[in-house]
Design goal:
homodimer, about 350 residues, alpha/beta, Rossmann fold, 2 domains, six-stranded parallel β-sheet, 16 helices, about 10% strand, globular
Amino acid sequence: MAESIQIYIPPLDEGAMRQAEARQARLTKPAASLGRLEALSISLAGMTGRLDTPLANRVVFTLAADHGVALEGVSAYPREVTAQMVLNFLNGGAAINVLARQMDARVVVADLGVDADLPAHPDLRSLKVRRGTASITRGPAMSVREARQAIGHGRLLAREEIARSLDVALTGDMGIGNTTASAALICALTELDPKDVVGRGTGVDDEGLERKRQAVRTALAVNAELISKGPLETLAAVGGLEIAGLVGVILEAAAGRRPVVIDGFISGAAALVAARIAPAVAGYMIAGHRSQELGHGAVLRRLGLTPLLDLDLRLGEGTGAVLALPLLEAAVRTLNEMATFDEAGVSERDQEAAHNSPHN
Amino acid sequence: MAESIQIYIPPLDEGAMRQAEARQARLTKPAASLGRLEALSISLAGMTGRLDTPLANRVVFTLAADHGVALEGVSAYPREVTAQMVLNFLNGGAAINVLARQMDARVVVADLGVDADLPAHPDLRSLKVRRGTASITRGPAMSVREARQAIGHGRLLAREEIARSLDVALTGDMGIGNTTASAALICALTELDPKDVVGRGTGVDDEGLERKRQAVRTALAVNAELISKGPLETLAAVGGLEIAGLVGVILEAAAGRRPVVIDGFISGAAALVAARIAPAVAGYMIAGHRSQELGHGAVLRRLGLTPLLDLDLRLGEGTGAVLALPLLEAAVRTLNEMATFDEAGVSERDQEAAHNSPHN
């Protein structure tokens, strides 16, 4: 029998959504002319229960861990890069640092399972569950207990930030090999074929791509029994420690009625696991962007999400989530700050006139 | 013989583009993983000749004018709305005001030909060429001399802002009936059929859409001779005064090597005219978003532009241009502020290892 995670996700506030929708119709613009920003303003109202969803306190959870499968030629980068990039995050030199500075977001860097002794640093949360996962091609990545522990760490991180007035959570990842683990997770949870899910990650060549596909096929076969038990077991079987941490961040942020902006492929895999554990969590998700990684579209469709941006990104770290923040802000600001037709003395769209005006 | 506009558009700085491209390859990220942001950073370097393109001083040129064709049942809104919306811009209540405040942009509102006596206002530039165009279904919208005058006004506005250290220009429009004029312009310049270009604008019903199509067909037939002479004459024949003003803004900003972010359908029509007058101007254009208006895609393809955002917007005013500003900033910041592999001590992607690693 599947193990479970106990968590209560509140339903969306339908009343606030109706109010937001009604206000959109009164703003000085043609109906629906702000397109997806209008829908986004309504979704955000549903999540937070207010039309003026606060967005000032924005935190990117960039979780890092290593993957046993990285030793099997599935990445264009050596495994040491995970630890090196964590140091780069702490020095403020990575893309996520630059973009977070631009967007006034704070980056929480956490080590969920990097296979290196990282130096103590005031900005690094050390939550190492183990030094990397075991290779998913030979057995489970981790025990169910370890998966549960990593989820708990992610929940802790989100809870701490909620206590510090978090307004919006953003997910990010770092882990050489983690597109392979994410692809395996997605295949296991959706029954899609690896050829439709496994992509080039950081940029493997054709041979590397074939190795990745084969690694995923092997992982699914070797771990079939554990996978069959449920989402938590599947996460333990073929997932990763940073992915499990993100599952926890997503669950806890949604439980606290905070919007969660999902980054790309790896975050998408975590979002899919979170939604299998607690389906209502999907109502709190916003897809930041459409990743170039094969299989991301399938994940988004299953979560019922349409990404806000489509910029051919495939970097991770949380970059595609942070880039979407100005659109969330634009959605909330237009809903709240625009004049209504009444206030501005602007003639409303005259449906009747449009229908009846003579063909002159 | 076609009349012409004398303007020199400097070529893009190929050296700066090569430098930007070389730097992109050294940044701590997989090659091309920042997708379109990388290409954008290179384009911006080409426009301004520097890797750290300044973007602080951002101005939206929201030009307004009326259209004779608006009296022929082609819009869901009455013609008075043009003037009412200009007042709304001046009061800060329109979508463009809200978004410009968010993005730290200034809105320059100019009356190029509104058919109303607008009150004097410190934030309104009064550059009325005439009180609205004549209906394009009965003859030319304006004289070639008036079109030239409106272009000159747009150039003046851009020149004034360049003197005040403009960094980036954004185009915007307001004019009931201007999707009809823009569709006619686009058909005239591209020889596309009205059925593939004319859309619902602010939201006309099926009957209104058919009236718009018919108005465009009639306008093209009535003005065929003038259209055949050249882009300036075509603009006079079936364009609009705010569209002509935008042509001037685009030409002058490009002449001053400033990036120009093009809003949606109406701005796209202006961009197409500008590129027919001076083809090199297209190198300075960035498409802010993909408009919902039918025919916008065809315009972008002809200009060689791919829009940054695709949010089902169809509002105009400059909203789809302003929303793209954070992406320009992200492109410039990542290029300039990210650490290189050397600086960060991160192992580079090992092509050889990727090709030769054993299938273990």
